[in-house]
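Q: C-alpha coordinates for this one, please.
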Amino acid sequence: MSLALFRQIRHALGNLNPADVREEAARPVTVGIIASSPEVLGRMEAFLAPAHMSAERRAEALRSILRNGADADVVLCEASLLGPKGAFPFDLDEPETCIRRVLKDRPELMLPLARRFYPFRKRASQKIVRDVAQENALFCLATAIPDVVPSVFSLPWAVGEYSSDAIFLTVNQIRMSFLLAAASDRPLGYREQKSEIASIVASSFGWRALARELVGKIPLGGGLIPKAAIAWAGTFALGLSMERLYRLGYGFSREERAGVYKDALLHGKEVAGVMLADLMRRSKTA
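A: Here is the predicted structure, written as C-alpha coordinates:
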Protein backbone atom coordinates (compact mmCIF):
# COMPACT_ATOMS: atom_id res chain seq x y z
CA MET A 1 0.00 0.00 0.00
CA SER A 2 1.33 3.47 -0.84
CA LEU A 3 2.01 5.80 2.06
CA ALA A 4 -0.14 8.47 0.41
CA LEU A 5 -3.17 6.17 0.29
CA PHE A 6 -2.66 5.16 3.92
CA ARG A 7 -2.58 8.83 4.91
CA GLN A 8 -5.79 9.50 3.00
CA ILE A 9 -7.54 6.62 4.77
CA ARG A 10 -6.30 7.90 8.12
CA HIS A 11 -7.59 11.38 7.31
CA ALA A 12 -10.98 10.02 6.25
CA LEU A 13 -11.28 8.11 9.51
CA GLY A 14 -11.30 11.45 11.30
CA ASN A 15 -14.97 11.73 10.30
CA LEU A 16 -15.85 8.30 11.69
CA ASN A 17 -16.42 8.33 15.44
CA PRO A 18 -16.97 4.93 17.11
CA ALA A 19 -18.41 6.70 20.15
CA ASP A 20 -21.55 7.41 18.11
CA VAL A 21 -22.06 3.68 17.51
CA ARG A 22 -21.27 2.88 21.13
CA GLU A 23 -23.82 5.42 22.34
CA GLU A 24 -26.48 4.11 19.96
CA ALA A 25 -25.95 0.52 21.11
CA ALA A 26 -26.10 1.51 24.78
CA ARG A 27 -29.49 3.16 24.36
CA PRO A 28 -31.96 1.76 26.92
CA VAL A 29 -34.58 -0.47 25.36
CA THR A 30 -37.40 -2.54 26.81
CA VAL A 31 -39.35 -5.46 25.38
CA GLY A 32 -42.86 -6.15 26.58
CA ILE A 33 -44.18 -9.69 26.39
CA ILE A 34 -47.85 -10.63 26.42
CA ALA A 35 -49.02 -14.23 26.64
CA SER A 36 -51.94 -16.40 27.70
CA SER A 37 -50.19 -17.96 30.71
CA PRO A 38 -47.19 -17.59 33.01
CA GLU A 39 -45.69 -20.69 31.38
CA VAL A 40 -45.69 -19.08 27.95
CA LEU A 41 -44.33 -15.84 29.41
CA GLY A 42 -41.49 -17.85 30.91
CA ARG A 43 -40.71 -19.49 27.59
CA MET A 44 -40.65 -16.11 25.87
CA GLU A 45 -38.26 -14.81 28.52
CA ALA A 46 -36.04 -17.86 28.10
CA PHE A 47 -35.91 -17.19 24.37
CA LEU A 48 -35.00 -13.53 24.74
CA ALA A 49 -32.50 -14.15 27.56
CA PRO A 50 -31.14 -17.69 27.04
CA ALA A 51 -29.26 -19.50 29.80
CA HIS A 52 -25.95 -19.54 27.90
CA MET A 53 -25.58 -15.77 28.32
CA SER A 54 -23.28 -14.61 31.08
CA ALA A 55 -25.02 -14.13 34.43
CA GLU A 56 -24.48 -10.36 34.23
CA ARG A 57 -25.77 -9.96 30.69
CA ARG A 58 -28.72 -12.29 31.26
CA ALA A 59 -29.75 -10.35 34.37
CA GLU A 60 -29.55 -7.12 32.35
CA ALA A 61 -31.73 -8.63 29.62
CA LEU A 62 -34.30 -9.92 32.10
CA ARG A 63 -34.55 -6.49 33.72
CA SER A 64 -35.42 -5.09 30.29
CA ILE A 65 -38.25 -7.59 29.71
CA LEU A 66 -41.62 -6.37 30.96
CA ARG A 67 -44.35 -8.93 31.46
CA ASN A 68 -47.63 -7.60 30.08
CA GLY A 69 -45.72 -4.43 29.27
CA ALA A 70 -47.83 -2.87 26.54
CA ASP A 71 -45.92 0.42 26.87
CA ALA A 72 -42.47 -1.07 26.21
CA ASP A 73 -40.35 0.03 23.25
CA VAL A 74 -41.15 -3.25 21.49
CA VAL A 75 -44.10 -5.46 22.37
CA LEU A 76 -44.20 -9.17 21.53
CA CYS A 77 -47.58 -10.83 21.83
CA GLU A 78 -48.34 -14.54 21.71
CA ALA A 79 -49.52 -15.17 18.16
CA SER A 80 -52.83 -16.71 19.24
CA LEU A 81 -53.87 -13.55 21.09
CA LEU A 82 -55.18 -10.22 19.85
CA GLY A 83 -52.43 -7.90 21.00
CA PRO A 84 -52.34 -4.12 21.35
CA LYS A 85 -51.77 -1.91 18.34
CA GLY A 86 -48.19 -2.13 17.12
CA ALA A 87 -47.43 -5.43 18.89
CA PHE A 88 -45.49 -8.09 17.00
CA PRO A 89 -47.02 -11.61 16.85
CA PHE A 90 -44.69 -14.10 18.53
CA ASP A 91 -44.91 -17.79 17.63
CA LEU A 92 -42.86 -20.04 19.93
CA ASP A 93 -42.47 -22.52 17.07
CA GLU A 94 -41.12 -19.87 14.65
CA PRO A 95 -39.60 -17.08 16.77
CA GLU A 96 -37.19 -15.99 14.02
CA THR A 97 -40.13 -14.66 12.01
CA CYS A 98 -40.89 -12.24 14.82
CA ILE A 99 -37.22 -11.19 15.08
CA ARG A 100 -37.12 -10.37 11.36
CA ARG A 101 -40.30 -8.29 11.58
CA VAL A 102 -39.06 -6.30 14.55
CA LEU A 103 -35.74 -5.47 12.86
CA LYS A 104 -37.52 -4.51 9.65
CA ASP A 105 -40.10 -2.26 11.30
CA ARG A 106 -37.91 -0.81 14.06
CA PRO A 107 -34.44 -0.36 12.50
CA GLU A 108 -33.61 2.47 14.89
CA LEU A 109 -33.62 -0.10 17.73
CA MET A 110 -31.49 -2.71 15.94
CA LEU A 111 -28.23 -2.12 17.83
CA PRO A 112 -29.64 -1.82 21.37
CA LEU A 113 -31.90 -4.85 20.82
CA ALA A 114 -29.02 -6.95 19.48
CA ARG A 115 -26.63 -5.90 22.21
CA ARG A 116 -29.08 -6.70 24.99
CA PHE A 117 -31.07 -9.66 23.61
CA TYR A 118 -29.05 -12.52 22.14
CA PRO A 119 -31.64 -13.77 19.58
CA PHE A 120 -31.46 -10.45 17.71
CA ARG A 121 -27.70 -10.57 17.15
CA LYS A 122 -27.30 -12.84 14.15
CA ARG A 123 -30.15 -11.27 12.19
CA ALA A 124 -28.94 -7.76 13.03
CA SER A 125 -25.40 -8.65 11.96
CA GLN A 126 -26.63 -10.09 8.68
CA LYS A 127 -28.57 -6.91 8.00
CA ILE A 128 -25.54 -4.75 8.80
CA VAL A 129 -23.34 -6.74 6.41
CA ARG A 130 -25.84 -6.58 3.56
CA ASP A 131 -26.56 -2.89 4.07
CA VAL A 132 -22.89 -1.89 4.06
CA ALA A 133 -22.14 -4.14 1.09
CA GLN A 134 -24.95 -2.43 -0.83
CA GLU A 135 -23.69 1.01 0.20
CA ASN A 136 -20.23 0.20 -1.12
CA ALA A 137 -21.54 -1.18 -4.40
CA LEU A 138 -23.82 1.83 -4.80
CA PHE A 139 -20.95 4.23 -4.17
CA CYS A 140 -18.87 2.62 -6.92
CA LEU A 141 -21.75 3.01 -9.35
CA ALA A 142 -23.03 6.42 -8.30
CA THR A 143 -19.66 8.16 -8.43
CA ALA A 144 -19.45 7.31 -12.12
CA ILE A 145 -22.82 8.89 -12.95
CA PRO A 146 -22.85 12.72 -12.82
CA ASP A 147 -25.29 14.54 -10.54
CA VAL A 148 -26.67 11.37 -8.98
CA VAL A 149 -24.73 10.87 -5.75
CA PRO A 150 -26.26 13.70 -3.63
CA SER A 151 -29.81 12.62 -4.44
CA VAL A 152 -29.50 8.87 -3.82
CA PHE A 153 -26.61 8.26 -1.45
CA SER A 154 -25.52 9.77 1.84
CA LEU A 155 -24.03 8.65 5.11
CA PRO A 156 -23.70 10.80 8.25
CA TRP A 157 -19.95 10.25 8.41
CA ALA A 158 -19.30 10.58 4.65
CA VAL A 159 -18.35 14.23 4.36
CA GLY A 160 -15.82 15.61 1.93
CA GLU A 161 -14.45 14.14 -1.24
CA TYR A 162 -12.76 10.77 -1.63
CA SER A 163 -9.86 10.54 -4.03
CA SER A 164 -10.57 6.88 -4.73
CA ASP A 165 -13.28 4.29 -4.21
CA ALA A 166 -10.77 2.25 -2.21
CA ILE A 167 -10.69 4.89 0.53
CA PHE A 168 -14.47 5.10 0.86
CA LEU A 169 -14.89 1.32 0.80
CA THR A 170 -12.19 0.80 3.41
CA VAL A 171 -13.59 3.41 5.78
CA ASN A 172 -17.11 2.07 5.39
CA GLN A 173 -15.88 -1.45 6.14
CA ILE A 174 -14.29 -0.12 9.34
CA ARG A 175 -17.65 1.44 10.17
CA MET A 176 -19.17 -1.99 9.57
CA SER A 177 -16.73 -3.48 12.08
CA PHE A 178 -17.95 -1.01 14.72
CA LEU A 179 -21.59 -1.87 14.01
CA LEU A 180 -20.94 -5.63 14.11
CA ALA A 181 -19.05 -5.37 17.39
CA ALA A 182 -21.87 -3.32 18.89
CA ALA A 183 -24.52 -5.78 17.71
CA SER A 184 -22.46 -8.65 19.17
CA ASP A 185 -21.96 -6.91 22.53
CA ARG A 186 -18.20 -6.72 21.94
CA PRO A 187 -15.81 -3.86 22.76
CA LEU A 188 -15.64 -1.41 19.87
CA GLY A 189 -13.31 1.39 18.90
CA TYR A 190 -10.01 2.00 17.14
CA ARG A 191 -7.94 0.67 20.03
CA GLU A 192 -10.31 -2.15 20.94
CA GLN A 193 -10.51 -3.36 17.33
CA LYS A 194 -7.02 -2.55 16.12
CA SER A 195 -6.47 -6.08 14.80
CA GLU A 196 -9.69 -6.09 12.80
CA ILE A 197 -9.04 -2.59 11.44
CA ALA A 198 -5.50 -3.50 10.39
CA SER A 199 -6.89 -6.55 8.63
CA ILE A 200 -9.50 -4.45 6.82
CA VAL A 201 -6.92 -1.97 5.57
CA ALA A 202 -4.61 -4.77 4.42
CA SER A 203 -7.38 -6.84 2.86
CA SER A 204 -8.62 -3.89 0.79
CA PHE A 205 -5.78 -4.75 -1.55
CA GLY A 206 -5.91 -8.50 -1.05
CA TRP A 207 -9.53 -8.56 -2.25
CA ARG A 208 -8.53 -6.76 -5.41
CA ALA A 209 -5.84 -9.30 -6.15
CA LEU A 210 -8.33 -12.11 -5.64
CA ALA A 211 -10.87 -10.26 -7.76
CA ARG A 212 -8.48 -9.95 -10.67
CA GLU A 213 -8.03 -13.72 -10.55
CA LEU A 214 -11.75 -14.51 -10.30
CA VAL A 215 -13.06 -11.95 -12.79
CA GLY A 216 -11.38 -13.92 -15.56
CA LYS A 217 -13.23 -17.05 -14.47
CA ILE A 218 -16.64 -15.54 -13.75
CA PRO A 219 -18.45 -13.68 -16.55
CA LEU A 220 -19.37 -10.33 -15.04
CA GLY A 221 -19.92 -8.27 -18.14
CA GLY A 222 -18.38 -4.90 -18.89
CA GLY A 223 -18.67 -1.33 -17.75
CA LEU A 224 -19.36 -0.57 -14.10
CA ILE A 225 -20.79 -3.96 -13.12
CA PRO A 226 -17.49 -5.73 -12.24
CA LYS A 227 -16.32 -2.81 -10.08
CA ALA A 228 -19.51 -2.70 -8.05
CA ALA A 229 -19.75 -6.50 -7.86
CA ILE A 230 -16.24 -6.68 -6.41
CA ALA A 231 -17.08 -3.99 -3.85
CA TRP A 232 -20.22 -5.87 -2.82
CA ALA A 233 -18.51 -9.25 -2.63
CA GLY A 234 -15.44 -8.04 -0.75
CA THR A 235 -17.53 -6.23 1.85
CA PHE A 236 -20.00 -9.11 2.19
CA ALA A 237 -17.33 -11.79 2.67
CA LEU A 238 -15.40 -9.61 5.11
CA GLY A 239 -18.56 -8.89 7.09
CA LEU A 240 -19.52 -12.57 7.36
CA SER A 241 -16.04 -13.43 8.59
CA MET A 242 -16.20 -10.70 11.24
CA GLU A 243 -19.68 -11.79 12.32
CA ARG A 244 -18.33 -15.28 12.96
CA LEU A 245 -15.30 -13.85 14.73
CA TYR A 246 -17.50 -11.99 17.20
CA ARG A 247 -19.93 -14.88 17.58
CA LEU A 248 -17.54 -17.85 17.78
CA GLY A 249 -14.12 -16.30 18.37
CA TYR A 250 -12.60 -17.06 14.96
CA GLY A 251 -13.19 -15.86 11.40
CA PHE A 252 -12.82 -17.52 8.00
CA SER A 253 -9.74 -19.43 6.93
CA ARG A 254 -8.06 -18.37 3.69
CA GLU A 255 -9.85 -21.17 1.82
CA GLU A 256 -13.24 -20.34 3.34
CA ARG A 257 -12.76 -16.67 2.56
CA ALA A 258 -11.99 -17.41 -1.09
CA GLY A 259 -15.04 -19.68 -1.39
CA VAL A 260 -17.42 -17.18 0.20
CA TYR A 261 -16.01 -14.39 -1.95
CA LYS A 262 -16.44 -16.38 -5.15
CA ASP A 263 -20.10 -17.08 -4.38
CA ALA A 264 -20.66 -13.48 -3.29
CA LEU A 265 -19.17 -12.19 -6.53
CA LEU A 266 -21.89 -13.90 -8.55
CA HIS A 267 -24.61 -12.41 -6.37
CA GLY A 268 -22.81 -9.06 -6.41
CA LYS A 269 -23.16 -8.99 -10.19
CA GLU A 270 -26.94 -9.31 -9.86
CA VAL A 271 -27.10 -6.65 -7.15
CA ALA A 272 -24.94 -4.26 -9.17
CA GLY A 273 -27.08 -4.77 -12.27
CA VAL A 274 -30.26 -3.84 -10.43
CA MET A 275 -28.60 -0.81 -8.82
CA LEU A 276 -27.15 0.44 -12.10
CA ALA A 277 -30.51 0.21 -13.86
CA ASP A 278 -32.14 2.17 -11.03
CA LEU A 279 -29.41 4.83 -11.04
CA MET A 280 -29.66 5.27 -14.80
CA ARG A 281 -33.43 5.69 -14.50
CA ARG A 282 -32.99 8.29 -11.77
CA SER A 283 -30.36 10.19 -13.73
CA LYS A 284 -32.71 10.46 -16.72
CA THR A 285 -35.61 11.76 -14.60
CA ALA A 286 -33.50 14.11 -12.47
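A few notes: The chain has a mean pLDDT of 84. The longest strand covers residues 74-78.
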